[in-house]
């Protein structure tokens, strides 16, 4: 949890943080600024960047897209 919330640019941690931001926005439907606040991201445009990046990655990597959609479904279930 702590690694996801830190402002590290390590690729794996950044990807996990971006997926978490994407899922938070998709599942909770919170404003970009609120999602950013939750993850320690000061600018809503950074949140928007993360969301768009994950949307792009889902198209480029169908397996990753399926895994993200699986997580989204589980979050919506309970």
TrEMBL record:
N-terminal signal peptide: none
SMART domains: Bac_DnaA_C
Pfam families named among the record's database cross-references: Bac_DnaA_C (PF08299)
Cellular component, GO, one term: plasma membrane
Positions of the Chromosomal replication initiator DnaA C-terminal domain: 3-54
One of the protein's GO biological processes: regulation of DNA replication
GO MF entries: ATP binding; DNA replication origin binding
Top-level taxon: Bacteria
InterPro entries given in the database record: DnaA_C, Trp_repressor/repl_initiator
Family matches, as Gene3D superfamilies: 1.10.1750.10
Stored PANTHER family: CHROMOSOMAL REPLICATION INITIATOR PROTEIN DNAA
Entry protein name: Chromosomal replication initiator protein DnaA
Organism: Aquifex aeolicus
